[in-house]
Amino acid sequence: MANSEILHSKAVAVITGAGSGIGLAAALKYAKYGMSLYLADIDEEAIKAAVQKVKGVEGVGEVFGSKTDVSKVQDVVELRDKVLEEFGEIHILMANAGISRPTPAFSLNTPLNDLQDNWHSVLNTNFFGVLNVCQAFAPIMARQENASAVIVTGSKQGITCPPGNAGYNVSKAGVKTFTEQLAHELRNVPDSRCSAHLFVPGWVHTGLTGAKNGGPKPAGAWTPEQTVDYMVEKVFELGDFYVICPDNEASGVLDKARIQWNLDDILQNRPALSRWHPNYQARFDDFIAAKQGLSAAARSRSRGRRAPGSQESGFPTEADISRF
Question: Which family is it part of (predicted)?
Answer without folding.
Answer: Belongs to the short-chain dehydrogenases/reductases (SDR) family.
